[in-house]
Specification:
2 domains, single chain, 38% helix, two-stranded parallel sheet, Chitinase A, domain 3, 161 residues, Helix Hairpins, five-stranded mixed β-sheet
Amino acid sequence: MNNKNNAIVYLTRERIIELENELRLLKTEGRPEIARKIAEARSHGDLSENAEYKAAKESQEHLEIKIGKLEDTLSRVQRIESKELPNDKIYILSVVTLRNKTNNEKVVYTLVSPEEANFEENKISITSPIGQGLLGKKPGDEVKIKVPVGFLEYEILEITR
């Protein structure tokens, strides 16, 4: 499963370990479990009308796609460490404190690769509209970022690692 552009995937050491563990579990536990389900369904007779068999085969296909995607991602990984990056402006792994100019609320985002993005943890992708709008900016800068629902306006208060 090759990514069309073979782009480098920047991940932290912690995220690489998480993906490697997930891949290992899928191969060592997921595959045998699916094989067991297929064998059990096969034992029920006529495969052409066996919904349990079809469901197990579909699960197997989804599992193999997920394994392929993980292997592809891990094959393109370049590890990054926040301490290796400067704090002069916003880069990947920057922790950015912003003030929303509309409602005066403060928000803190960590800019990460798309593979690590998790909005619930305020980890936003550097390829998202907000991430792209913040990259390269410095404390004191004001930004107006186009998002699907309109525009967001922020003042950059602080950048940390």
